[in-house]
Amino acid sequence: MPVKVRITLLFTLLVVGILAVVCGSVYYFYYTGRVDDITTRLTNRAITTGRLLRQRGVFDEALIRKIDSSTSVAMREKAVAVYDSLDRRIYSYRDVGAEDLKIERAVVEKTKKTFSGPIYFTRGRRDAIALNYNEGKEGYADYVIIAAAYDETGNEKMRDLRMVLVLSFLGGIVISIVGGILFSVSLLRPIRRIADEVNEISARNLARRIRSSGDDVKDEWYYLSGTLNQLLNRLQESFEIQGRFIANASHELSTPLTSISSQLEVSLQRMRTVEEYRSVIQSVYQDTRQMSKLTQTLLEFARASGTAAGLEIDLIRIDEVLLRLPGEIVKADRSFSVTLDFDALPEMEESLLVFGNEELLFTAIRNVVSNGCKYSDDHHAVVRLTVRGGEVVIEVEDRGRGIAVEERESIFQPFYRTEDGHSVPGFGLGLSLTRRILQLHKGSIGVDSVVGEGSVFVIRLPMAGG
Ligand code: ADP
Fold this sequence. Notes:
This protein is α+β, with helices and mostly antiparallel strands.
């Protein structure tokens, strides 16, 4: 069922429910009020008749009838019947044209046993009461007096009230349906508008944002459009990063490719000496090695760009990963060296366990360590391993050129290289790949550096048992 219909229905049901309770209560209280009123009036009448009958010697029956006939005009079709203790009808009166009261014996018997007040009942359209009349003698009935009358004014008022209530109830239903429709339309209009605006946004116009209803009304719709706009910001940012990444990657690949093709083209123009061919092949070999390194890094990037769900995760001892570093770093460049400092390690080996993909973590740490060697004159890095506050902390320190404050965040962006870093071969992908891998492992990387003195890269990984 559409939300609009549901809201309308709910609203209508709510209003109808409230109306029904209000109308029902008004009717009920008015009805009980009228019954109380007619009961009191009929009881008074019965008591008067009872008193007069007790003094039969003074008032004769004709006089009593006269008094019975001269009551208010609002009470019509009056009838009075009096029974003595032997259930004999000793007196009866009825208005001209009024029906006689047919009273069952059971009613008389029941009334005789009731001392708490009159019993109310109806006879046709007439209201009636049965009163146990005694003058102070407990548990004894002098007479049982039945008085009945048609409460014309009261019933007319009831009829009018019924009419008013039914009309207001029906009117209320119509108003609540119309109100429900208007209410649901106005409630859902912002959603529709937001949905329409979101529909118009595609990859081509990602810079577009959803307009909020008005800055002064900070309602849920404002919050929703704000949240969607934030999502669009993130999407746009990642689209742009991706775009830049592809442009940079293509550029890095096209440079050696252009160099290869132009070298081959020039050397094919005429016959060359063996030496010349060797030198061209050597140069092409260098270019293809560079391309192969780049594609390798790009593949690693693609691997680390997914979610951790697709990765093979194991319990890894981080000191064992670090122990592989010296051998691997030397393979990259024979002048590179690494010192491992495990002095501050705790006794418990379990604190060195982390959950992760060993190869990816090794790649991440190796990138930082090889940078330490690459960007320092002594080509040396110190790797320190400690455990602090549920985290495994790896510090990679070098005595290199250092990194300026304003560049400390940018170096983690793909393809970013500092101005003085250009003298050293590289693509600017190592640190961004490292950060990506660490994010996959719920870890982090930061840098502290003094320009001209050196840098300390700090890698944090959550302990497996932490
Ligand atoms: P690459 O080393 O291939 O250029 P990275 O992403 O590893 O790419 O590093 C990005 C940039 O950060 C480098 O170009 C370099 O300028 C700077 N950098 C990284 N590590 C260091 C370091 N230990 N000392 C000084 N500069 C560094």
